[in-house]
Design a protein that fits this description.
Length: about 475
């Protein structure tokens, strides 16, 4: 029993020696890389980009202020979005692959007892214990760890893409809702104007100065505008639900009526934005990281076809022998060296070809994504600048002219020089121009949000140089 106990102690000591000592086949792995920090304590649950690791749940969402702007809505959504949080946790999971990929395989401990103890001249052999450690070819573990770090870098870029996509989603939903509120306000004001027209036409009809067809026309126009206003008001809950979904709030959470949101204009041209997108877009950067991952996996696959070296220590427990020799009862210790024989070359060559093909496929995918991205940037820039052009056209030219035309038609109608149908036509034109201007403002902001998502970096913008408050016409019937 003493011999067996001694064998166990020596084998444990040998295992600790192998684990503690470095060898020429062990390379110090890098613990940082493109994927960010690779070592996260496993004793505590994973943290969050928005909360500490020891915090069990997110902080209760703070209500948005009634005068909150687009930046406030985006910040709120980024803080509370489960989709962004999921992308962050996927990055953390990918970052944990690097230390796993760069670690040595576990050592192997073997223990055996002789059922029929062989008798030697120094004594009977009773048990044997050994420990072995396998070392891949130098550089293979480092290549695999570097590949895992590159994969974590791709996951980080996907996280950044999710954040940009959420910001675009919030801005689009916010400006759609702002358009609905503005359209309802403008349509309501137009409805009040038509009602005043109806009172004037009805009064003229009573005294015989007006015609019955004029009264019917204004009543038909009233019905159409009332229908449009009802539709706009009934569409608002759907717009509120879209925005609340992006904010990770219940669909029925109340959002106050939005005022006119600030307008911004991109200061750079399409070519400059496309060049920035080519080097900063998260989708392009993620594909670049995946290409580098496959490049390092190719290196690892080549080294995988080289021999693995196994070092071992074997200890044999031996009882006291019957003969009087000097080595009687000594426990032999043997050091072993093993070498794998990678003779089946087809599988190793296939592994290298696989990584090369994957890298080529991702390279072509990145080239296609770059072409698509350049076209998308030019399209979004056109949408943005065209919407800004339309805003200026309506605010500076069409709406003021339509207001003057309506005022002139009303004056002519009072003097009996203009048919009431002309009044209704100019009133309808003014309404359509005003609604088109509100739509163009929303389109301008939404296209700018798409540009920000495509470019991947903050875009330099300048305030819109128009003041909508100075262009709203005042019309008196």
């Amino acid at each position: 029993m003493a011999k067996r106990l001694r064998a166990c102690v020596l084998s444990a000591a040998a295992g600790g020696l192998l684990a503690a000592c470095s060898t020429p086949f062990d390379e110090a792995p890098s613990r940082t890389g493109a994927g960010g920090p690779a070592s996260i304590p496993g004793a505590s649950p994973p943290g969050s980009v928005y909360r500490e690791a020891d915090q069990p749940a997110p902080v209760e969402p703070a209500p948005l202020a009634p005068d909150a702007g687009p930046d406030d809505f985006v910040r709120y959504a980024l803080y509370h979005s489960p989709r962004v949080e999921a992308a962050y946790q996927r990055w953390r999971a990918a970052a944990e692959r690097a230390p796993q990929a760069g670690a040595l395989p576990d050592p192997r401990l073997t223990v055996g007892f002789f059922l029929d103890e062989p008798e030697t001249r120094v004594g009977a052999q009773q048990a044997r214990a050994g420990i072995q450690q396998t070392f891949p070819w130098p550089g293979e573990l480092q290549a695999r760890e570097d590949a895992a770090s590159r994969a974590a870098g791709a996951a980080w870029q996907q996280f950044e893409a999710e954040r940009l996509a959420l910001a675009e989603r919030v801005v689009i939903a916010l400006y759609d809702l702002a358009y609905l509120d503005a359209a309802a306000r403008v349509t309501g004001e137009n409805l009040d104007l038509l009602r005043s027209f109806e009172e004037v036409v009805r009064a003229r009809y009573r005294v015989g100065a007006g015609s019955h067809p004029d009264l019917i026309r204004v009543q038909v126009e009233l019905g159409q505008v009332e229908d449009r206003l009802t539709q706009l008001r009934e569409m608002r809950p759907a717009g509120v639900a879209d925005l609340n979904a992006a904010l990770n709030r219940p669909a029925s959470t109340e959002i106050p009526t939005l005022g006119r949101l600030p307008g911004r204009i991109a200061a750079a041209d399409a070519e400059a934005l496309a060049d920035t997108a080519a080097r900063a877009n998260p989708a392009i950067l993620a594909l670049s990281e995946r290409i580098e991952e496959q490049r390092r996996l190719t290196d690892a696959a080549r080294r995988d076809g080289l021999p693995e070296i196994t070092l071992g220590i074997d200890y044999t427990a031996t009882a006291d022998g019957m003969t009087a020799v000097a080595e009687r009862g000594d426990d032999p210790v043997m050091v072993s060296l093993g070498l794998s024989l990678p003779i089946w070359r087809d599988k190793y060559d296939a592994g290298v070809r696989e990584t090369l093909a994957r890298r080529l496929a991702i390279s072509h995918e990145r080239a296609d994504e770059a072409n698509r991205l350049a076209a998308a940037v030019h399209r979004a820039w056109f949408d943005h600048t065209d919407a800004d052009r339309r805003v200026g056209l309506y605010e500076r030219t069409l709406i003021p002219k339509a207001g003057e035309s309506l005022q002139a038609s009303i004056t002519g109608f009072r003097a009996g020089e203009t048919d009431f149908l002309d009044v209704l036509d100019t009133e309808r034109t003014l309404l359509e121009f005003t609604l088109a201007a509100e739509r163009a403002r929303a389109d301008r902001a939404q296209a700018l949000a798409r540009l920000a998502t495509l470019v991947g970096e903050p875009i330099h913008t300048v305030p819109a140089d128009t003041d909508p408050a100075d262009t709203d016409p005042e019309v008196n019937p």
